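Example record for the data management plan.
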Amino acid sequence: MGQVNRQGPEGNPAGLPGARRPLEGARILITRNPDRAETLAAELRLAGAEPLLLPLTDVERARDQDALDDAFDALGAGRFAWLVVSSATTVLALAETAAARTVALSGWIPQSTRVAAVGPATLDLSLIHI
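Corresponding structural encoding:
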């Protein structure tokens, strides 16, 4: 559902009154964190669905950040050929770690380190921060 709805302003073909929207009457459970589910929920509403938000997971940082600090130091020192980020949460954690050191993440990662992102949301945040 990450695409723009091209069926008219009300989510039905050409926006015609009375035209049935593709998901009219469907109730769809979204198990993502509400902060990250709003775009999907809005698109589902346009298509006629009733999104139900029920977050089943939450993200919090580990109390012990030593492993992250060590890996972040190694990253900045150029000891990794690749940085693969698999979630938007990972990008945000790295950006927060950089900010705590008063550097930009994009300036911390050496030019020789290649970066890969898994998924469109991760890619979007990577383009902003890396």
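Summary line stored alongside the record: The mean pLDDT is 86.
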